[in-house]
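If I may wish for something, please walk me through the protein I am sending here so I can picture the backbone:
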Amino acid sequence: MSARFAGLVAVGAVGCALAFAAQAQTVDEGNLEAPSSALDIPDSVTLFGKRDPNVRTATALVNGEVITETDVDQRLALVVLANGGKVSDEERDRLKLQVLRNLIDETLQIQAAASKDIRVQKAELDENFARVAANFRYTPENFSKYLIAQGSSDRSIKRQIEGEVAWNRLLRREVQPFVNVSEEEVRSVVKRMTDAKGKEEFRIGEIYLSATPETQQRVMQNGQQIMDQIRGGGSFQAYARQYSEASTAAVGGDLGWVRLAQLPDELATAAQQLQVGQIVGPIAIPGGFSILYLIDKRQVLTADPRDAVLSLKQVAIDFPAGTSAADAQKKANEFGEALKGVRGCGAVSELAARLNATVVENDIQARNLPAQLQSVLLAMQVGESTPPFGSAQDGVRALILCGRDDPQDASAPSFDQIMSQMEEDRVNKRARTYLRDLRRDAVIDYN
């Protein structure tokens, strides 16, 4: 169940995520913050009094609206579920502070929408909550009970839904109508895509942690802790949303599709060594550290062999309980020898009957298979079988390739699709500025 919560917490409530997610490579953050020199801060600072930002009760008043410690704890429970329920006490404390910041932003978004007479009605919240529950195969009533058992509540999810829906509608009314993309800009993008056909692209996730010379060691250690949590089963997207200081934090750290030449040299070198699904870091870069996650890779406008649809038959033999590793290996070897005599899928039923094996057939896209099997199957001819695989506990099995439908070369997105994406990118950029202004003007009291 916890793995399915990753999508809920990392991306937002199911079916209600913002429609204006940005691709990071098109975002220019240069104008979002004034340089620190404009603040006239001296190089040497003497603090009069002590204030530790990490020592604070998890409650706040946001323009007079209360965020209680219960609100924070219930939302934190969802984040913990998204990370497999395995969060250290130290990590929980850091997450709690981030959750409070997220709840403050959510409150500001709801308040801003309400000031424009945009409100999400209870019936709509109930309908969206029921849709989320159905995605997890629960009735709304049973889903509420499950959330309570995990330390959260339906109220916490409904509040998240309310914030996302209200903010989305506010952006559609107050921001989107004032965003324009010219036809010439779209044609320029089409030309660049056409010129790049066949070149390798990488879809990369990034967690960026800023550091100064004084904080470098501490930040690097923090980055290593994040790496350990992700390798232990934590959601990369959830950690990116909580910790990354890049503009892509809102979309789980997703940089979108980029070519290595677009990345800093340090990141390009690291990304080149990654296989899909691997992470690396923390990587020292100017201004801090980055953790990279290779989501996928492809060639621009070129068919990806992993999109081939394979028609497969699986032949499987189960081992009796208590089978030793040696006996399992012996049976697997015998199974492998028998497979060598298979001549096409038509002979599979006869082989299965002789070996007292079961046969299952299915059509599946190659990319949905384990990585080890993808490379083997994509190199096979129709009628050939994979080597046996399995374990003493799971038995031994093999896949026979009965047919293959290769994908066609990818076509470039349509003119309208590119224009729509560019508009969404610009709306997202203005949305971040809008939220920054709301934070700046808010009256927030911490209790």
The CA atoms of residues 34 and 40 lie 12 Å apart. The longest strand covers residues 288-299.
